[in-house]
Structure formats: C-alpha cells, structure tokens
C-alpha cells in the first residue's frame, strides 16, 4: 500500500506552463476585473477602461506584464491616481500572437499583497475578438451589431489581460451605448441590480440617448469566456422551467423559439448523467451568419451559429454540446491550449451521453462518432500524421494557438475517454466524473492531474481488480496524449446503419449516371446517416470514382444543391468540387458568402482552391468583408494569402 501511494504521488504538484501568454502569471494573478466600455458601433470603436485587483503569488514583483493585441493603450495608473510607466514590445515579432504590455510598478510588492490599477485604452476595427457589423449585414437592417469571440487566445484584443485559461477571475462591467445603435446588450454575466461607479458619463445629444447596463460574474472564469453582444436583439424564454432563454434579432425569435422548445429537456438529460447545473440560467444567442464557429460556451451567454437552426432540429447537437461545456470547460478548464481536450473531449463525451438519454438512438451516437473520426482524420492529414498538432498535446510555442485548432481534441479526446470508460466500467466512470467535478470545481488543470485523480479515485473507492485496471489505464496513456496520428487503440463504432449508408453510396456509383432502385431510402435516413453518405461521396471523389454524370443524377434525385441544412450542403459542395464539377460555382459562391462558420467554409475553400485557385481567391475577395477576423485569417492560410502584421 505504501508503494502504491508513493506511485500515486510521484508526479509534480505544479501544472504545465502556458506558452501562449506573455503575462507574468506565475508571479501575479488577477482576482477581479472591472470593464467600462463606451460603444460607438457605427464608427466601430470602443472607449474603454479596465480596472484590476492583482494578487502577488510569487516571492515579489516590481512589474506586471499583460497580453494585448492591437489595442490603443493610453495610460496606466494605480487606484490612488498615481501614473505608472508602461512599454509595449513584441516577444514573437514574426507571429500574430500580439504584443506584451509591460507596466512598471511604483515599488516592490510581496507575496500575498494586492495591487489595484487601471488602464485606459480603446478597441477599433482591427480587433480580432470583436466583430463590428453594419446594419446592412444584419437580418432586420435597422441597427449595427457587435459580438465578441475570444477563444483560444483572442481576449487580449478585448482588454489587456492575462490571456491564459490557467488564470480565473470574477468580473463586473458597465456598458454604455446609444439607443439608436443597440436595443439591448448582454454579456457572459448576470445583469446587476446594483449600478457601478461610472468614470465617464457622455452627454445625450439630439437624436439619441445614452443607455447604461451593468453586469456581474460572481464565478471565477478564464479570460476567453468574457463575451458581449449588442444590437437589435431581444431575450425570451425558450421553454418551461424558467432556466433557458434565447437572444436573437426580433424577426427570428418565433422560428428559433419553436425549434428550441426542448432546451430544458436537453439540460435535464445532461443533469441526468453528470449532476445539477450550477450556473443559474442558460441563454443561447443565435448570432449572425458570419459567426466563425458552431457555438461558443460563454457562461450565461452561449453563442451559436444560425446554421444550427435547420427547421427540423437536426442541428441541435451543437446546443447540447455547448450546454455540456457548463460542466467541462467552464467549471473545470484546461490549464493551457495544449490540454484543450480537457475541455472539448470531455464535453463531446458528455454531449453524446446526454443525447443518448434524450433521443435514445444508440446508432446515432455511433454514427456521430464515425463522422467525428472522419473529420479528425482529415485534420490529421492536413497537419501531417507525424505532426504534434495531430496529437492531444500540440505545441504552439511562438504561434497563435488557433493555428492548431481542429477536431482532434474533440474526437481523439472523446475516444480516449470512451477507451478509459471501457476499462473502468460505465457506472464507476460516471461516478468518477461526478467526483472529478466536485474536486476541481472552478479550477484549471492539465491531463496529468486528471490521470492522478482517476487513479486515486479508483483506489480510494476500492474498485474491483484495481491493479489490472491501473495497468491498462497507464499502458497507453502517453501514446493517447502525446503520440501524433491515429489513436493507439482503434474503437469499434460499427452499426448496420453505417453499412446502409455505404451501400447507398455504392448504389449510385454502380448506377453510373442512372437512378438506383432504392434512391428514396435517403428520405428515411437518420441525419447522421446522410452525413456519412456525403462523407463517403467525398472519399469516392478523392479516389476519382465520383463521375460528373453521377453527380447530376444525385442532385436531380436529392436536390442537395438546394439543401437548406448546411451540415449536408457543405459536404455536398466539398465532394463535387473534389470530383471536378465546375457547373455549380455560382451556388457555391453564394454559399460561401452567406455562411461564416469555419467548419463549413474551410473544407469548401480547400476543395475549391485545389480545383481553381484563382477563382477561390476571387470568391474570398468578394466576401472578405463578411467574414469574422478569425475565419478571415484561416481562409487566408488555406489560400496562401496570409500576411503577418504586428502594427
């Protein structure tokens, strides 16, 4: 027993470092942030003051360094008004990680002491965390629109911060805005009944009135979960229970509310597996189509792309996924972006457990795992199977961690947890996850700490055959985490529904431009089966087996070019472009100009770029103003147009 306990305690107590922050967070950490923002949405500008309460955690400090990205810094000063000197430098001049703000303190501060200081700055249209939209880009076309997107390390473009998931802080905010530019404003925080002291009160002018909203987030969160949305938007309940709400432009409210009527049931399905939701209410914001990702799990204010709203409910797996982040990602957070699977792998695992409770279709869970595995493998091929970006522990030293973003932490992480569950047993694994949430509530950890906890928990619970289970857990652990490429253990997600989808693809290939006998089977396919069919078409195209006459027949039968479900549509366009079809370029251009979700536009741009680079560039230039800065940057990478700028 003594030897066993020594082996469980042999690992270092410290967590991994975050290589993607320039802050001196190992010496000093912020405990509370207050933001005062004056929005000028028409001019795409925000006047800002941020106030901090830092605590020294190292032996002593005489300066504080923070992450920034293209912020205009005007002054830094202590709470008593004493001005502090500051400089800005570029630790990685050839990278787009941003800059380092160096604040020289008035004296040496020692461990345990607090430092309260403020920074006056402004945000403009160069920000990659804020998307300023004109009223013409919105659905109602009556007011401009503003929203943020900070994950991974983009909150440094929102405020000077310790932009690392390893530091969690509470925050408050005062947002000042014109009633002609926004009907309402929401943040990833509760609305405060208490009004905060305002440093600057602008005067009302003819034609508009300044409005004030106050927010408070009492739970410590990492900087990437700070979020704001403003525009012609309103908030309504989505279902009974009083916990779930929707925010969107008013012309979409009714349709979206109808489709989201089961949000409370989604929440209950997750709780059934993992335990109570502890954040109070849950609000989903359906963003404009330029939002660059499927969803973003900002606490109390989840953002989602409108492509999830299909009218049939087929895209609502994103809603369950983002809800599941309330437990994994928001409550327990990865300590750095090399450990992103601690957020995403766990969340996919919980999402699929909850989906099984809610829908009770086990074949659908297996098919979604297969679809996820296919996307993961395609990302691995893009990075290279020997690249550490294809591992669960990518090294992004000197790089923007967005460069390593992929489905790998989601799906390889999910498969790793499924593998661990197969060793531990379903019931014990579920109970372990519940205990894990209690142990590390509102903390940031790395994969080694999770391993330590898992082994310690199993030992303390006296599970059957502990020694064998411990051996199996450790046997491949490092291969799962650190080895690039496919997982060391291949899991079996096969189902008859998978065979049906593959046979359906083959029936069209064999028909060689004619209509196959059972072409109408597609109508009754699970949504995941339809995706598998389209993924298989893409494989056929890659192997030069998808002929143009087959494409014509499929589209004649299934009308995929006219499909309103973008999960299906982007897969169709990717497949036919890979097959060399140039007859639908107008529709593809329209698609790329109406969807900003990276999952959907990046594969289509890759396929189009291989088929006709010049046309791909032309389409991008046509729609460039539509895209969010994150998507714009990634598309430039795909097309070979990326230009590094640190100005």
UniProtKB/TrEMBL annotation:
Family: Belongs to the peptidase M1 family.
Sequence ranges assigned to domain Peptidase M1 leukotriene A4 hydrolase/aminopeptidase C-terminal in this UniProt record: 498-639
Upper lineage: Eukaryota, Sar, Alveolata, Ciliophora, Intramacronucleata
Official protein name in the record: Peptidase M1 leukotriene A4 hydrolase/aminopeptidase C-terminal domain-containing protein
Organism (species): Paramecium primaurelia
Keyword Zinc: yes
Database matches in Pfam families: Leuk-A4-hydro_C, Peptidase_M1, Peptidase_M1_N
Residue positions of the active site: 322, 410
Coiled coil regions, renumbered to chain: none
């Amino acid at each position: 027993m003594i030897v066993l306990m020594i082996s469980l305690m042999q690992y270092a107590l410290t967590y991994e470092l975050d290589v993607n922050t320039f802050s001196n967070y190992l010496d000093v950490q912020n405990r509370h942030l207050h933001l005062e923002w004056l929005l000028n949405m028409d001019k795409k500008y925000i006047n800002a003051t941020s106030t901090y309460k830092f605590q020294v955690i190292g032996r002593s400090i005489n300066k504080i360094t923070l992450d920034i990205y293209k912020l205009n810094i005007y002054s830094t000063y202590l709470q008593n008004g004493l001005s502090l000197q500051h400089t800005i430098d570029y630790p990685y001049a050839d990278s787009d990680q941003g800059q380092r703000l160096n604040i020289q303190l008035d004296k040496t501060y020692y461990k345990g002491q607090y430092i309260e200081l403020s920074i006056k700055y402004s945000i403009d249209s160069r920000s990659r965390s804020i998307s300023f939209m004109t009223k013409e880009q919105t659905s109602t076309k009556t007011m401009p629109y503003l929203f943020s997107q900070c994950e991974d390390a983009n909150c440094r473009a929102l405020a000077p911060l310790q932009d690392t998931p390893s530091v969690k802080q509470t925050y408050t905010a005062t947002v000042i805005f014109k009633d002609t530019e926004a009907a309402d404003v929401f943040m990833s925080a509760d609305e405060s009944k208490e009004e905060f002291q305002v440093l600057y009160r602008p005067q009302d002018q003819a034609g508009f009135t300044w409005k004030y909203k106050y927010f408070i987030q009492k739970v410590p969160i990492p900087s990437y979960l700070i979020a704001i949305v403003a525009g012609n938007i309103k908030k309504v309940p989505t279902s009974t229970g009083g916990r779930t709400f929707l925010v969107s432009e008013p012309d979409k409210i009714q349709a979206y509310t109808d489709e989201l009527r089961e949000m409370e049931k989604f929440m209950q399905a997750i709780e059934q597996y993992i335990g109570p939701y502890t954040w109070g209410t849950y609000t989903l914001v359906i963003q404009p189509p330029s939002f660059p990702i499927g969803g973003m799990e900002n606490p109390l204010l989840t953002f989602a792309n409108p492509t999830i709203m299909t009218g049939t409910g087929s895209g609502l797996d994103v809603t369950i996924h983002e809800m599941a982040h309330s437990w994994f990602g928001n409550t327990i957070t990865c300590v750095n972006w090399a450990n992103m699977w601690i957020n995403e792998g766990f969340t996919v695992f919980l999402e699929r457990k909850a989906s099984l409770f809610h829908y009770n279709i086990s074949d659908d869970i297996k098919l979604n795992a297969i679809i996820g595995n296919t996307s993961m493998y395609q990302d691995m091929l893009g990075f290279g199977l020997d690249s550490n970006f294809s591992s669960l522990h990518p090294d992004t030293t000197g790089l923007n961690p967005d460069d390593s973003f992929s489905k790998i932490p989601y799906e390889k992480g999910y498969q790793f947890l499924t593998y661990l569950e197969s060793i531990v047993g379903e019931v014990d694994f579920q109970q372990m996850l519940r205990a894990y949430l209690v142990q590390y509530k509102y903390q940031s950890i790395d994969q080694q700490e999770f391993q330590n906890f898992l082994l310690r928990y199993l030992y303390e619970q006296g599970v059957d055959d502990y020694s064998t289970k411990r051996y199996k857990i450790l046997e491949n652990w490092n291969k799962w985490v650190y080895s690039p490429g496919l997982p060391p253990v291949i899991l079996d997600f096969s189902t008859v529904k998978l065979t049906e989808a593959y046979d359906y693809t083959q029936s069209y290939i064999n028909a060689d431009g004619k209509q196959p006998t059972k072409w109408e089977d597609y109508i009754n396919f699970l949504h995941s089966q339809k995706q598998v069919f389209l993924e298989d078409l893409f494989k056929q195209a890659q192997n030069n087996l998808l002929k143009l006459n087959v494409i014509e027949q499929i589209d004649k039968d299934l009308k995929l070019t006219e499909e309103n479900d973008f999960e299906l549509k982007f897969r169709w366009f990717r497949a036919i472009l890979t097959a060399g079809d140039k007859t639908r370029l107008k529709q593809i251009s329209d698609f790329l100009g109406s969807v900003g979700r990276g999952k959907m536009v990046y594969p289509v741009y890759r396929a189009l770029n291989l088929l006709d680079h010049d046309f791909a560039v032309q389409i991008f230039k046509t729609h460039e103003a539509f895209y969010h800065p994150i998507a714009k940057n990634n598309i430039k990478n795909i097309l070979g147009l990326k230009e590094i700028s640190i100005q």
